[in-house]
Amino acid sequence: MKDGWLVCSGCSYKIPYDAGIGQCTCGGIFFVGYDLERVKASWAASPLRERASTMWRYHELLPVEHPEEAVTLGEGWTPMIRIPDWEEKLSLNRLWVKRDEQNPTGSFKARGFSVAVSLLKERGINKVAVPSNGNAASALAAYAARGKLEAFVFVPMDCPGIIVEESMRYGAKTYRVNGLIHDAGKIIEDGKSSEGWINAGTAKELGRLEGKKTMGLELAEQLSFEMPDVLLYPTGGGSGLIGIWKALCELKEMGLLHGDLPRFVSVQEVGCTPVVDIFHSGAKDFVPYSEDTTSSPTGVRVPNPPAGGLILSILRKTGGTAVAVDQREIRQAQNYMEHQGISASPEGAIVFASLLRLRETGDIRAGERVVLYNTAHALKYLEWPLPSSIPVISNYREYAAKIANAQQITPQE
Amino acid sequence: MKDGWLVCSGCSYKIPYDAGIGQCTCGGIFFVGYDLERVKASWAASPLRERASTMWRYHELLPVEHPEEAVTLGEGWTPMIRIPDWEEKLSLNRLWVKRDEQNPTGSFKARGFSVAVSLLKERGINKVAVPSNGNAASALAAYAARGKLEAFVFVPMDCPGIIVEESMRYGAKTYRVNGLIHDAGKIIEDGKSSEGWINAGTAKELGRLEGKKTMGLELAEQLSFEMPDVLLYPTGGGSGLIGIWKALCELKEMGLLHGDLPRFVSVQEVGCTPVVDIFHSGAKDFVPYSEDTTSSPTGVRVPNPPAGGLILSILRKTGGTAVAVDQREIRQAQNYMEHQGISASPEGAIVFASLLRLRETGDIRAGERVVLYNTAHALKYLEWPLPSSIPVISNYREYAAKIANAQQITPQE
C-alpha cells in the first residue's frame, strides 16, 4: 500500500506501512493509517452507491496493493434488517440486526481472511496458520483454498464439529488441541519458525482487523451515515469490535458521519468474562482471566484477548459498557430470534440476550436506535460427531512428533 | 397488483391478475404478466444500480401490492463469483457461480417465500403448508415466522436432518412423510379444506415462481445485461429454472438484454431423471416418472415435476439440454468446488459435475461463457440425527387422526 503508515494503538509509535508487521514492540497492535483526504476524493469521484455489493467497495480503506486481484469469495455487504416486533416490545426507535452470517463460510470471519489472505498472497507467502474457536478456522480454510495457500488450523477439542468438518472440506490441515484458543495459539508461535507458518491469529497481522472494519463501514453506509445510539457486539478476541470502531473513527475524521459514535457494548457469556470483569472493576490495564472457563465453546470464549486494553478503552471512550449473560438467557434469546425467522448463532443470541438485559437495567433507554451483530450461522453449532481420525495435540512438541507420519494426520488433502 | 394479468403457460388463457389463483383449469401454471413499458419507465426514473441490495430492487416485476411492507429477511442480490482456475482448465471464456446459498436460511428458496408469504399476508391468510425435499420447508418456516403465519411443512423421511431441525426452530409444525415429495403434496391437497391450509407447493400459487425469477434478473444485471452462452441449473420441481427463463424473457421484451438467451441446461442425479429421460426421448409431453427413485434426498429428487412440459419446452426453445450425473461424479465435483473455497451443496455439485460432463461431450464448447447456480449451503446436508419425537405420517387420514392430540405432534411451538 502506497503512502500508508502504521501507528501503534498502545504507544502511538508511528512507522511507514509494512504488510509484514503485526504487533508493536510494546505489545500493542498496529493500526493501518490512510491518507483520508485522498480516500474522500476517490469516493467523491466514484460514489459508493454505484459500487460492487461486496466489502471491496471500500478498497481505498483496505491495505491491499491490488484490490482487483484480491482473494474474494463474495464477502461483505450483508443485509441489515429491522425487527419491528421487538422495537415495539422494547420501546426502541429502531432495532437492526446486521446479518453477517450471510457471508461465505457463514460467518463474519470471511471479511478478515479475504484481506489477510490477499495480503499474504501479495507477499508471496504460502503457509498460514490460525488458532480458532471455529469460524476463523473454516474461513481461513476457504480463503486459503481460493488463494492457493496451505492452511493449518488449530481448534479446541470441543470446537463445534460441523465447523471442523467445514475446515477439512476446504482442505485445511486441521488439528484439535487439548486446551483453549490461547493454547492453540502457542502451538503456532512455538512452531512457526520450524514450520514456516505465518500466524494469522487475532492481532498477529494487519489484514484481519482491516477486513473486519468493513462491518463498521457498511453499518454506516447502510444507515445513510446516521449513527445509531448503541451497538452490541459479541466479544471474544475483540478485533471485530475494534475494527468497527476504527472504521467509524475513520469516517468521522473524513467528516462523513452524522452524530456521535454509538456506545459500544461488549457482550460475553457467564463463565468466561474477562472484558466484563475488568471493565466493571474500573481497572485501567487488562489482566489475563484467572478463573476456569466454564462457558460454551463459541467465539466469545477467549480468556485472554490480545488487545484487551484497547477494548476497554473503546467501551469507556464511547460511554458503552460490558455485560455477561448466562446460558438460560442465551437459549431464550435464540428462540426469540428464530421466531422472527432469523438464524441465531450462539454469539448472535448472546447479543440479543444482552439487549434484553440492558433494556431492563436502563443502560439502553426507550427511544434509542440499536444495532446488533449476528456474526455466524446457527446451523454451524449443531452437535455433530467428528471422526476419531482427526489428530489431537497438546503442544508443538507433540505436533512435531506426529507430523513425522504426515499421512496419518492430514485427514483431507 | 394493479394492471397485471395472468396468462396460462400451457394454453395461453388470459385473465386479470388474481393473487388467489395458482393453476389454470388446463393444468398449466399461470404466469404473472406486467406492463413492461411502465416497469421500464420506472427503472429509468430510479436506476437499479442505486437501489437496495436485495431482490426487492425489482419490486415492479413482483406481484406484491405494497413492496414496502413485504416480508423480508434480506434475501437476494447474492454474489456471483468467477472461478479462474476452472476457466483455464476447461478453456472457458468465463465461469461464474451464483452463490445463492448466501441467502437467509442458506438457500435460494428464500426468494420464493419472501414473495409468496408477502402475497399471503396481503390476502389475510394465516395458515400455509408446503411439501418439500428440505430447503423449501425451512425457508417457508422462516418467512412464515417473520410474517406471523402458521406454517406446516411435510418432508420425506430421509430429508436432511439439519434442515428439518431448522424448520422446527423457526417454529413450523414439521412432519415426516413415508414417501416422496408428491406424497407429501397429496397430504396437503387432501387436508387443505379441513385444515384451512393454503398449499404453497411448486406451481400451486403465484409468488414462489415470481420470487425465484429474481435469480434471473440478478444474473442479467450482475453481467451488465450481457447474456452468457450457457446456464446450468439443478432441476427438481423446476420452478427455479422456469423463473430464470421468465425473467430473461421479460428483460428481453423490455429491450434490455444484449445477445440471445443462454442455452438452459437441466441437471439431475442418476436415479431420478424424469426431465433428462423425456428430453432425450424426444417426447412432446411430460409423463410421470415410472421407475423407482434411487437418487439422494436432495432438491432434485422430484419424480413428477408439476410443470414438466414447460421445462422441456424451455430447454428446447433455448437450444439447451438435460443431463444426469452420478454419485461418484457429484462427490468429485463437490471436492473440486470446496478446493476453490466454495460451499458446495449436493445440488451445486450436481451442476458442476454436469459442466465437466458437457465439456467432455462438447455440448459446452471452448471459449463459452457459463453460469452455474449453487442453490444451497453444503452444511445443511450433513447427516444429522433427528429426535424420534417428530411425527411420521403416510397420508392425510393419519395426520387427521394424530392431530387429535396436538401436544404430541407439535415438537416445537
Give a quick account of the main beta sheet of chain A: strands, pairing sense, barrel closure: 6 strands, mixed
The H-and-E topology of chain A, N to C, reads as: EEEHEHEHEHEHEHEHEHEHHEHHEEHH
**What structural category arises from helix and sheet content of chain A?**
alpha/beta
Name given to the CATH architecture of the largest domain in chain A:
3-Layer(aba) Sandwich
Cofactor (chains A, B): pyridoxal 5'-phosphate
GO molecular function (chains A, B): L-serine ammonia-lyase activity; threonine deaminase activity
Organism (chains A, B): Marininema mesophilum
GO biological process, one term (chains A, B): L-serine catabolic process
Descriptive account of the structure:
Chains A, B: Residues 71-374 form the Tryptophan synthase beta chain-like PALP domain. Chains A, B: One of its GO terms (biological process) is L-threonine catabolic process. Chains A, B: It holds the Pfam family PALP. Chains A, B: It comes from Marininema mesophilum. Two copies of one chain form a homodimer. Chain A is α/β, with parallel strands linked by helices and 413 residues long. The first copy, chain A, has two domains: 80-104 and 211-381, Rossmann fold (3-Layer(aba) Sandwich), CATH 3.40.50; 107-205 and 384-409, Rossmann fold, CATH 3.40.50. Helix content of chain A is 38%, strand content 15%. Chain A is built from 14 helices and 14 strands. Chain A has helices at residues 36-45, 84-89, 109-122, 135-147, 161-169, 181-195, 207-222, 239-253, 274-281, 308-317, 327-338, 346-361, 396-402, 406-409, and strands at 5-8, 14-16, 30-33, 80-82, 94-99, 127-131, 150-156, 173-177, 198-199, 230-234, 263-269, 321-325, 369-374, 392-393. In chain A, the strands form three sheets. Chain A has a six-stranded mixed sheet with strand order 4-5-13-10-11-12, with helices on both faces. A five-stranded parallel sheet of chain A has the order 9-6-7-8-14, sandwiched between helices. In chain A, helix 3 runs parallel beside helix 4, helix 3 crosses helix 7 and helix 7 (207-222) packs across helix 8. The radius of gyration of chain A is 20 Å and the shape is globular. The interface between A and B is large, with 43 and 43 residues.
